[in-house]
């Protein structure tokens, strides 16, 4: 074992240099200009618990997406059958997986079935049956097709949310799918979490619906309405008192124009009243539809509905053919700006529900870092002093190994672009204790060998050799639990597992190679009679 | 420097006392686990679902004043806890009675108009997440235990594997017993601490087992209990030194690491102590007992 420590020393030196190189972007706020492309730019990220921010887990209500697409099919079938002059009584969604078409006679039902089969080959047809003098035709979306739609809904929601966050402006957000229906969003360092959550979670289904003036909205209840009408409310907030008033409005259920026909939405300020509004532009289909509808309904009211809330219901004064419109309501400038963002980014295919919302303020994060570092420094200092006293010079070698251990671990964390959480800092502190353990094992062995009367060098070699298997065993078992924690943990716990498992692996190297080579190099050059241990 | 030179303590002979102590602790731990399973312990909202927040007030605030303000606003079932430094208040609500964090903050703002606060942190967790976390935790614990049994069974033999796991379970139960008796919160950080200690305890146990195995090969004539005692005594100073250094690190986390990881560090401190005890007084006696009949082991 006297030979071959050149490569061991060079390995250690290489690791030290590499650690410092990888740590540079973390330690320096601005990199020097000569820090070029080859050199690493990744740094240790701070977890939300350390820098503040918001962690959201959202569930996409995918069943609603399936229902939505069935509604679309129903609307489309109305158009198709009308075009083919097949008379029907009613077409609508039935439950969560069916569309029912009610027709007057068997013949037209058969004709309709043939037609629908051609247009929607994926739908299943249930046997036609008679009921109360009408003929019912039911189509069902099968399990697999429904699953495909659900899956697509989550993927779309993810894209839309990403879009909204990008436009809102958050640095280094994390937006990812988790499990089947969930989306995880992390917004580090965000100042106004409430606003962000509203922005992200809004379904933003924009619809233009005609107001049904034949029904008195003030006395209408949901039950007594004509079948193709619905009762919605227009909410207005008084800017002076903050009081909210609700005005009922009865509208046609069928939306004439929807938000997916938009090309742009921008916030503008009304020069006359100094009120913010959102200016929207339609694409060519939308513009044509808007032109037709406004031309046919001059004098009637057109309700602008967002997520079943009426924003405003202005009277159509004249035909509007430019393909643009405006949404005004009683909102603040911020609300108008956010509305423009969600309209631009598009609506969510289904509503989302917030399952988990963890928000940490920036000051708590700062305090956590300070206290974590403080605790770490004190822990390290205690251990260093103890080892120095107990094992003298050899203890200092162990201390050097421990410091190397921490340095390598930080370097590895930076190289991997890992996230440091408060439990992660705790893991590093804990590692300080574990790190010296390997050396304690070795030193105790060496002392035993010395007591048997071996020379320093022989005792040293025997100590390292005999302790080797024990150290391997203890590290592997510790690694098993760390790996399981990594697999199952989220957020802070994952950070803990990352620091711990990396630390354990690195510790194997520092305790078995790094400290040994120091001893070897020393004993080879200096002739010692007694080992300082 | 040396704390212990040549010790000759009859650890195996003390097993009657140690088994009684460990049995009682483990029993309390099992009761604690049953209560946790029933949701009757002090559950963190990450498992039970609910709302919690940490508020920092401008002036000192009493839980009384906060409770009054909240109950006026219709929030009745709420746990409040003062944090000693910096006028802070922890507000916790279980899922059944939970209101949204925004609501509670608005009510407090209205009820304590003279004492403005900032939100240090707030957490809202739906019950489905808690359920999933519970399942994941059970799987994680089961998997790591299985992995450990397999590894030790492969490196030593089956008896050692079982004894190591019993000792590890003992430590897990002991930490839970302490948390249950002190009515401290059971949350994901506690589970993390418990699994960490499981790994640490195992390390300790493995070191002792290693020496036992080595000595069993060396001296085939001596009775087992003598070999076991000699092995434990030989590694005793290592066991204590390692515990001391790890304990130093854990205690500095506990004392200086701040509010967020206070309980986590506490679990580590308890765990280090218990793990040291169990590797000496629980794991090895089990193997000794199993290998030879009780009469012979007593002869030492």
How would you portray this structure in words?
The complex is a heterodimer of chains A (533) and B (300). By secondary structure, chain A is an alpha+beta fold. Helix content of chain A is 52%, strand content 21%. Chain A has 3 domains: 5-52 and 361-525, Multidrug efflux transporter AcrB transmembrane fold, CATH 1.20.1640.10; 64-145, Alpha-Beta Plaits (2-Layer Sandwich); 202-359, Gyrase A, domain 2 (2-Layer Sandwich), CATH 3.30.1360.200. In chain A, helix 9 packs across helix 10. The relative contact order of chain A is 0.12. Chain B folds into 2 domains: 12-43 and 129-298, Multidrug efflux transporter AcrB transmembrane domain (Multidrug efflux transporter AcrB transmembrane fold, Up-down Bundle), CATH 1.20.1640; 50-125, 2-Layer Sandwich (Alpha-Beta Plaits). Chain B has 300 residues and is α+β, with helices and mostly antiparallel strands. The interface between A and B is large, with 70 and 68 residues. Strand 19 (352-360) of chain A pairs antiparallel with strand 4 of chain B.
Could you give the topology of this structure?
The complex is a heterodimer of chains A (about 525) and B (about 300).
Chain A: H1 5-27, E1 45-46, H2 48-51, E2 53-60, H3 62-83, E3 88-94, E4 98-103, H4 106-119, E5 124-125, E6 129-131, E7 134-140, H5 143-168, E8 174-178, E9 182-188, H6 193-201, E10 206-210, E11 229-237, E12 244-252, E13 257-258, E14 262-269, E15 276-282, H7 284-296, E16 302-306, E17 309-312, E18 324-327, H8 333-345, E19 352-360, H9 362-415, E20 419-420, H10 422-451, H11 456-488, H12 491-525
Parallel strand pairs in A: 1-20, 11-17
Antiparallel strand pairs in A: 2-9, 2-19, 3-4, 4-7, 5-7, 6-7, 8-9, 10-13, 10-16, 11-12, 14-15, 15-18, 16-17
Helix pairs in contact in A: 1-9, 1-12, 3-5, 5-6, 5-8, 9-10, 9-12, 10-11, 10-12, 11-12
Chain B: H1 15-38, H2 45-48, E1 50-57, H3 63-72, E2 79-83, E3 88-94, H4 101-111, E4 117-125, H5 127-155, H6 158-181, H7 188-218, H8 224-256, H9 262-291, H10 294-298
Helix pairs in contact in B: 1-6, 3-4, 5-6, 5-7, 6-7, 6-9, 7-8, 7-9, 8-9
